[in-house]
């Protein structure tokens, strides 16, 4: 009969299997999530066809997933009563792998391993500090490339998949068998089980016996498969008990429920800073539940890849950390999007240029900006907390041309008139404090307040009582440059201020004014020799040496020519060129 003789996996599948079985040690528990989500997919497809009026075999069989552990045989079994597969489907679905995905996978994992080898230490990102050398994070890689089913070979050295289709003439069952090394067989099965659907049996490797512990399996399910819309039983007891909160009406949910859900979703121990919950019907249908965490993440460093939203289609997880749903500057958002407008079996490659996701993305940006605007208006303290935690990534929103005005209004700065380093101002508040006639946001880049204050260019601004925004992060000057203008005002560094830039503004400090009184002709001539000498000494390093009236306490100051770079920008570019 067809398939008795062993068949070869396709070449790239063999390579992927080799890596899965030999290199991935962190987060191996996600094989459970992959098998459960496949079972859930199969149940959902069955339910869909039932709803369309088709009748499956054994229509009274409940839609559920049952996991059983056999400690003596060292096997773990996952059974679903879903759609099932024919012999052909077993070979087709489990013998091949998404082509583009697997090539990308191989390239990426090679790069990742090279980088790890170079830095000499692996990083166990989530909770699994299993003490083994972490060559790569399985969850991350498997999620990214949709090599779901094969993840079982991280923990098993033999797997059988026995399946009986729910529809069709031929109701016989077939078994796919493989050791995950290079070949597989498909044979007719004489077993009574499954009566409908699929049973996957995994013989666990010696180093994966932890998955023979019920609590271990249950905790992995609570962590990764909490919202699967069908009951998941482990040795007879239900392990997934979280409702899909995002589908519940907002008014019926308490703060505590939100917090509990957030913790289950993110494994954060602290309550979230804030949540956003909404549903949209046009132009796309989706439910969304987002959280703003109360702690910061380092998206420019170790957390670079750890953002994105969980994408569900009708409560079934399609992709963890989907990055098409939000622009990078909203990377601080954690949460769930659930839409009716995507097919369940959409592949990860097609997700990338998907029109539905693009529309959802646009709606999410608008909703999030509105939410932040409301927060800034109604609870400035909390908004400032948000800014201190997540402002660093949010300010990248200056790239979002369509929403630039709104993003700019949400930016916050410390400034020369603030009481301390913690205080923040918006650009609108800055404008409201500025004297009549000012049309420039003045800023100074410095590592901290003290350095900013000591910058000699600040003297003139102090003297005139003009507020100066403090930019503490290297990226800030790029943001200012990128923004160009806000409400007709331009952004300018104090270092680029012309000597007479503030001549229209009255002095605030009388004493300072006096000490900076204009030089008499006599003084000017007596300085001429000094000027000549300095020009000679400095040569090409400067474009000019001039007498200045702007300084009160400092003997000299370096000035950027108009349109030139500020000194900190020059420093940054020098570092980047190295
Ligand atoms: P994906 O789920 O992303 O399609 P997987 O590698 O996880 O990729 O699964 C490959 C395919 O195998 C699935 O698309 C499905 O067609 C089939 N499959 C896996 N598990 C089951 C199951 N329990 N019941 C029915 N079909 C399944
Ligand atoms: Mg899958």
From TrEMBL:
Transmembrane segments: none annotated. One of its GO terms (molecular function) is ATP hydrolysis activity. Keywords: ATP-binding, Chaperone, Cytoplasm, Nucleotide-binding, Stress response. It comes from the Bacteria. Signal peptide: none annotated. SUPFAM superfamilies: ATPase domain of HSP90 chaperone/DNA topoisomerase II/histidine kinase, HSP90 C-terminal domain, Ribosomal protein S5 domain 2-like. ATP binds at residues 34, 38, 80, 85, 93, 99-101, 198, 348. One of its GO terms (cellular component) is cytoplasm. PROSITE patterns: HSP90. Its main location: cytoplasm. It is found in: Cytoplasm. Residues 1-348 are annotated as: A. Molecular chaperone. Has ATPase activity. Belongs to the heat shock protein 90 family. Homodimer. This is Chaperone protein HtpG. It comes from Desulfovibrio intestinalis. The lineage of its organism: Bacteria, Pseudomonadati, Thermodesulfobacteriota, Desulfovibrionia, Desulfovibrionales. The gene is htpG.
